[in-house]
Design goal:
It is a single chain. The chain is mainly alpha-helical and 454 residues long. It has three domains: 190 residues, MFS general substrate transporter like domains (Growth Hormone, Chain: A, Up-down Bundle); 50 residues; 191 residues, Up-down Bundle (Growth Hormone, Chain: A). It is globular. The two termini are 39 Å apart. The N terminus is likely disordered.
Length: 454
């Protein structure tokens, strides 16, 4: 039965739909990072170098970024629930094939297919959340989604270690498969089905969108990993030229793949810029922390893991509260407060005492994660709620694309800082603090945007 825009799903169907989306989201997040702990084993078994093995992670992230917006546009046309569950099926099929991978190229192809399945689901998850929850509880629903993302990212390395302790590396890719099965079974009847749109799908626009993100990010990655500067610059230039043509083409479209019509609204543009800088800040700092703690403070890998964990825990605690508050208070205020807290915590992390204990690190990390949690849930709510119902999938795809692009750029930024010899000290924390302040300014600026319309 096709669902028309309304006030969410009735209970108990709503709770089953929430679980279906939560399992699908956790699946994509866990599968993106769980393989990290298996890279040395994978490199040894496949007979490749460590740098080549890292492509198993990089390819997955890159395909996700390239495919999210094209899939979000496709979901608006064929149906959100249909695309969401197609993604689960694609993921399961490619996971089974991973058991037969005996070479790195074949494994990379399968990882790309897995990423396509994950992108199909993630691209419409926020739009499904909007259809699941009543409008007055949308912030709460998106906060729960943020909790799922944070907790899945936190448990992925531990889960990967447990799998490797009892099984070979192909089982790493299958560890999250039960989540796909549960999401499929629950979602078959529980997930909403907003009315699809009859407009033809813009295949050329989808290709241009994928090339824009793929070429620019690949060129930046190539530059910071020591490849030819001329080749890297040429790749970025080609991506930039395609991006120019793509945006010009999208400006004339009624249902653009890149939601330029939404980004033309100042409040949504500021929300997107703020979200992008926040994700760059968090990824730059988190990835730099193991280098600093091990090389300057003598922490063991186990101690580093224990120190990082309070960050997602802080987000998990604060995000639901932030979601509830965002249904009552302006996102600009909540986001500004959250980024002020995060920037202050990052400055405390930049200027650590000469002899730092785990407790010294943990309370600072909790404070920082709490600040990001207070920013992200209201920011996502504002983006989804401000878009028309017909553009909900595009708004959701924009959120996921912003998160993944920010995380990818954050990793690239850290690689650049490491290449300059300043990535293992306080510089990443200072850069992250500056980016957090910029995100906070974007959040506060939305208050003026909203008030100027009144």
């Amino acid at each position: 039965m096709i669902q028309q825009p309304g006030d969410g799903l009735p209970t108990p169907r709503r709770y089953l739909a929430i679980l279906a989306v939560a399992f699908g989201t956790a699946l994509a997040v866990i599968d993106g990072s769980i393989v990290t702990v298996a890279l040395p084993t994978l490199a040894h078994d496949l007979g490749v170098g460590s740098s080549a093995a890292v492509l198993v992670v990089t390819v997955y992230q890159l395909v996700l970024v390239m495919a999210l917006l094209p899939f979000s546009a496709l979901g608006s046309r064929i149906g959100l629930r249909r695309l969401y569950q197609y993604g689960q099926c694609i993921f399961l099929a490619s996971t089974i094939l991973c058991f037969f991978a005996r070479s790195l190229p074949f494994l990379l192809v399968l990882r790309a297919v897995q990423a396509l399945g994950a992108a199909a689901s993630l691209s419409v998850s926020s739009a499904l959340i909007r259809a699941i929850y009543p409008a007055r509880q949308l912030g709460r629903g998106l906060a729960i989604s943020n909790v799922v993302v944070s907790s899945a990212g936190a448990i992925a390395p531990t889960l990967g270690g447990l799998v490797l302790a009892v099984a070979s590396w192909p089982w790493i890719f299958a560890a999250a498969s039960p989540l796909a099965l549960l999401s499929l079974l629950l979602g078959r009847q529980a997930l909403p089905e907003p009315a699809p749109h009859a407009e033809p799908y813009d295949v050329l626009g989808a290709v241009l969108c994928a090339l824009t993100f793929g070429l620019i990010i690949s060129g930046l990655e190539s530059a910071v990993h020591g490849n030819s500067p001329i080749v890297a610059a040429a790749i970025v230039a080609a991506g930039t030229a395609i991006a120019f043509l793509f945006v010009r083409r999208e400006l004339g479209s009624k249902m653009p793949i890149l939601p330029v019509d939404l980004l033309a609204k100042p409040v949504l543009a500021l929300s997107t810029i703020g979200g992008l800088t926040a994700f760059i800040a968090s990824m730059t700092f988190i990835l730099s922390l193991p280098f600093r703690l091990q090389q300057h403070f003598g922490f063991s890998p186990g101690e580093v893991g224990a120190v990082i964990t309070p960050w997602p825990l802080g987000m998990m605690v604060v995000a639901p509260l932030a979601g509830v508050l965002s249904d009552r208070f302006p996102a600009g205020i909540l986001g500004g407060i959250g980024m002020a807290i995060a920037a202050g915590a990052l400055l405390l992390l930049a200027f650590l005492p000469p002899h730092v204990s785990q407790f010294d690190m943990m309370w600072r990390m909790v404070l920082c994660g709490s600040g990001f949690g207070l920013f992200l849930a209201p920011n996502a709510r504002l983006i989804v709620h401000s878009a028309p119902h017909a553009r909900a999938a595009s708004a959701g795809g924009l959120i996921s694309t912003t998160r993944l692009t920010g995380q990818t750029l954050g990793a690239t930024l850290l690689a650049a800082l490491l290449s300059f010899g300043v990535g293992n000290d306080r510089v990443p924390a200072l850069v992250a603090a500056g980016l957090a302040l910029l995100a906070g300014l974007c959040s506060v600026a939305r208050l003026h945007t909203v008030s100027s319309k009144q």
